[in-house]
Amino acid sequence: MSTPVTAGTAVERPYEIVVGLEVHVELTTESKIFCSCPTRFGAEPNSQVCPVCLGLPGTLPVLNRRALEQAVRAALALNCRIQPVAKFDRKNYHYPDLVKGYQISQYDLPVGYEGWLEVGDPANPRRIRIRRVHLEEDTGKSLHDQAPGASVVDYNRSGIPLLEIVSEPDIRSAEEARDYLMHLRQVMLYTGVSDARMEEGSLRVDCNVSVRPRGSDVFGTITEIKNLNSFRSVVRAIEYEAQRQWEVLSAGGTLRRETRHWDERREVTVALRRKEEAHDYRYFPDPDLLPVPLPADWVEEIRASLPELPGARRRRYVLDLDLSVRDADTLVGDPGLAGYFEDLLAAGAEARAAASWVLTQVLAWLNAQGAGIDAFPVPPARLARLLRLVDEGTISMTAAKDVFEEMVRTGAEPDAVVEARGLRQISDQAALLEIVDRVLAANPQPVADYRAGRQQALGFLVGQVMKETRGRANPQLVNDLLRQRLSSDG
Ligand SMILES: [Zn+2]
């Protein structure tokens, strides 16, 4: 696992958690899925609606080709097989935010099926199977805090293209659920199909949770926790719900198949209603939308246009470039940062040194400025040059950090800064030996200490030499020379 397991999980529990996730992702199209209304987030309520997405009688939906393409793109990136036709069905239910009385969705023929996503350690990953990926329209949004004593509905979201991604119940802990979501979100970002902003509701999660005695392979009764909108809520809700179920079962009780709500404030799940079955929705093919063929060559074109996906990139960083899982996750999790890192590699930088610089110096600057990598003023080739100066021993690491600061501030070339400030490391043995001897003569007590077996005295002497050279001595060489002198003159 890439993320630490919270205290008190997995290990000592008598039960196993079984989780399947249904994730809803809003696609980033300019217009809605069946009409030309804009999809911009945060607009004045009910300012982005028309007769089609309000479901007025006599209107006809027209499929947004771009939404279909993005759905195929995401499904391919999730290793799915693609249906030969896109067929749309009506899911019938009544709810205030669903103005038509039905939602256009895909029932028996989801656009993608039988996919998977890998989680955990790239050297030994766990494959979470994806049952289906289908396209549907979003509903409106009920607002309970706009008018006293009343609820109002904003239909701007109604008709925004939505992808529903349903996993098999292969997830075995709350942490693994978070890991899966993190990877899923990265796939959405890398393929550009969604901005996957949980805080804006463009990625929402339903968790199907059950428990069973450790070692059992029988599935228990599932409860569904609806509409979780942060990774943290997902983890807490699964933990809570699993423990609740186990306590009911341990006390000899039975569980009901039901839908539950996560109460964020009290951190408990609360029963909402009996869980719906598919037949409750009376699905039938939408007579207004003809099935759209998805030609194999078109699908292959989309497949060929996919970028390197986060899973493959993460595997490459850990297995080929020898980065830690943690560093790989941080880089992969930020496509811009990963792009900069890739550019450093292309400019000849060594992978581990490059990762270390990006994740410490570069990231620290970005965080301090509250900026993204696009605003970072040092081009990758220039930073790669600085790393080379360190690697070749021309400047010390300490000096390199000073040079870096000046490069960021003034846009200077690293070589120019090194020359102007005289930072070139002293690697000339004869010159250093002179200073080493001077330091030894001036510090008889530490010399005696070292010879009496106190190793730490060496550190002091190294420090004195560095001070004499204003930090420019090659520290490795200073160490070697000091040891040499101290053992031979003894
Ligand atoms: Zn509309």
Verbal overview:
With 490 residues, this protein is an alpha+beta fold. It folds into 3 domains: 10-302, no CATH class; 334-420, no CATH class; 429-488, Arc Repressor Mutant, subunit A (Orthogonal Bundle), CATH 1.10.10.410. It is 39% helix and 20% strand. It contains 15 helices and 16 strands. The strands form 4 sheets. The protein has a 9-stranded mixed beta sheet. It has a 3-stranded antiparallel beta sheet with strand order 5-4-15, with no helix packed on it. A two-stranded antiparallel ribbon has the order 3-16. Strand 6 (112-119) and strand 7 (126-137) form a beta hairpin. It starts with 14 loop residues before the first strand and ends with a helix. Mean pLDDT is 92; it is low at 1-8. The site of zinc ion has 8 residues, from loops.
β-strand number = 16
The chain-level mean pLDDT equals: 92
Widest β-sheet, arrangement of strands: 2-6-7-10-1-11-12-13-14
Gross morphology = elongated
Give the distance, in angstroms, between the N- and C-terminal Cα atoms: 53 Å
Radius of gyration: 30 Å
Helix content: 25-40%
Could you list the spans in which at least 5 consecutive residues all have pLDDT below 50? 1-8
For the sheet with most strands, the description reads: 9 strands, mixed
Sheet/helix structural class:
alpha+beta
Bound molecules: zinc ion
Strand content: 15-25%
Please report the number of helical segments.
15
Supply the number of structural domains.
3
